[in-house]
Amino acid sequence: MIRKYLLPILALGGIFLGIAVAIKGAKKTAPAAPVSQPAHSPYKIFVAGAGIIEASTENIAIGTTVGGVVARIYVQIGSRVKTGAPLFTLDDRTLRAEIALRESAVKVVEAQLADAKDELAFNENITDKGAVSVEDTNKRRNTVRIVEAQLAQSKAQLASTVTELEKLTVCAPVDGEVLQLKVHLGEYAPAGVLGTPLIMLGNVEPLHVRVDVDEDDAWRIRNGAVATGCLRGNKDISTALKFVRFEPYVLPKRSLTGDSTERVDTRVLQVIFSFTRGDLPLFVGQQMDVFIDAPTRTFSKPVEPVPAAEAKP
Predict the structure, then answer these.
(1) 170-215 pLDDT, tens digit each
(2) Which of 236, 218, 225 shows the shortest CA–CA distance to 274?
(3) DSSP of 195-215, one letter per residue?
(4) CA angle 61, 63, 67 (to 5 degrees)
(5) Fewer Cβ in 10 A, N or C end of the chain?
């Protein structure tokens, strides 16, 4: 008897369970509130662009012309440096030993030159011209010239070695702040262009914002345009921007915003703005949403060429 009604009961239970699941799934889920409201333009007519903060000198990747083991580091992340200040030094023991050797060689040649000059002076000061032959005097004069040339060569070799020694100390090319430090004591610092620079340096007073403006909107921006930048993800952190310059070469777009209407073949005009950081928590490398004031622009209609058939002789 129980087996007779078991299957219908299970079927009814499955139907009610399916109805309950369908009703629950049909309920609308309230969207989650955004962590922060998106930034809005303070201008009535504007052009929006994605910007990235950089140093006013641009971000300078510091490298070394010769490879070597790092022996001394004079800075740390955040250090402010002046032009010519040392950043780090490679192992210089070999070159210092070579300099000592070349300095000794210079002293030896200087002594030889002094002896050669004394012998020449002795011949030239003899009043009895028959006591010393002209050939011997000329020979001593040539000896002085040869030793002088050897001394010049030794000094040039010493100067060259000193220059090589100076190359082992990498100095700051501009006033700025150490933004990144990827060199450590005892590590080998390779020469040439590196994927990750040994030191990233730049002047952060003031900071610059490099804004990508789509080529379709580039014509709308005036020289000296006013702009406002908001930190990506927090519209409350914003600052007024001062126009610096246009980068005259229009580049292929690299950073995409993810908008469904965006074309990957779009080219962008880069516009540089500056601002003073002050107490704002803004750092090199952060992204900004930039709104550029772009009032309506009108351009005079170009004069159409007169057809050749209608042109007067």
Answers:
(1) 999 999 999 999 999 999 999 988 889 999 999 999 999 999 999 9
(2) 225
(3) SS-SEEEE--SSEEEEEEEEH
(4) 160
(5) C
How many CB atoms are located within 10 Å of the residue 258 CB?
Answer: 5
Residue 42 is given by DSSP the state S
Identify whether the C-beta of residue 47 lies closer than 8 Å to the C-beta of residue 271. no
pTM of the model as a whole: 0.73
pLDDT digits (tens, 9 = 90+) for 248-260: 999 888 765 556 6
CA distance 34 to 20: 31
**Cβ burial, residue 149 (10 Å; 0-12/13-18/19+):** exposed
Q: Taking the CA of residue 82 as centre, how many other CA atoms within 13 Å lie in the half-sphere pointing to its CB?
A: 0
Alpha-carbon torsion (7, 11, 17, 21), positive or negative: positive
Contact between 39 and 235 (Cβ < 8 Å):
yes
Q: Which of 61, 91, 81 is nearest to 205 (CA)?
A: 81
**H or E element, residue 145:** helix 134-167
Q: Which residue has the tokens 């777009």?
A: 253
3 state SS of 305: coil
